[in-house]
Amino acid sequence: MTSTADAERAALCDLLDDLGPDAPTLCEGWTTRDLATHLLVRDREPKAWAGIGVPRLARLADAAMAAHAGEPYGQIVATVRAGAPKWSPLGLPRAKDVVNLVEYVVHHEDVLRAQPGWRPRAVPRSLADGVWRMLRVAARAQLGRAPDGVVLRRAGTADTITAKKGEPAVTVTGDPVELALFVTGRQRAARVDLAGDDAAVARLRSTRLSM
User: Fold this and answer.
1) pLDDT of 21-41, one tens digit each?
2) DSSP letters for 165-186
3) Do residue 73 and residue 160 come from a single domain?
C-alpha cells in the first residue's frame, strides 16, 4: 500500500518532470533543479543532514548539492522518485509519513505556486488529514520562535492545535496545506486568516519562520 508521503513524492516528481530544470520555485534562489537536488541530498547524503537542519552548517548541504551539479536533471528526479534507500531513516516504512509528508507537500507547493497563472490543486481528504496530523508535531517545532502564542485552526472545523502557548495569542485559520506553508515560513504564499490582537498579528507576520 502506497503511503500518503510516497503518493505526494510521486506527484511532486511528476510536476518536476513536466516543468524541467529551470522553472522558478518559492525557495529563494532555487530553480526546480536545485529543489530536486536538495531532495536527493536529503534522502541519500547523511553527511549533509546537519547542514539542512542547522543554518550555520549549511555549507555541508551546499557541498553535497554541488557534487550532483553535473548530473542530468531527469536522472536526479528519477532518483528522488525512487525514494530514500532502505538504510536511511527517511525510508523506513513506519516513519515515512512522519518525517516526509510535510516536506513533500510544502515543496510541491513551492514549485506549483511559483509558476505564472498557477491554480490551487485539489487536495484529497486523506492528504489533508495526514498533513493536519503531522502539524501537531511540526507546528510546535517551527513556531517556537513566534513572539506570542499561536493557535492553528483547521478551516471549516473546530479543530485546533496550540502551536505555542502564550498571551496574547494569534489564531491562524486555513486548510491543512495552507497552514503547513505558513508554519514553514511561506507566510506570503499561504492562504490563511490571522485573528487576534493587532500588534500580535503584526509581530507574527514579520517573524521569520523557516523549515
Assistant:
1) 999 999 999 999 999 999 999
2) --SSEEEEEE-HHHHHHHHTT-
3) no
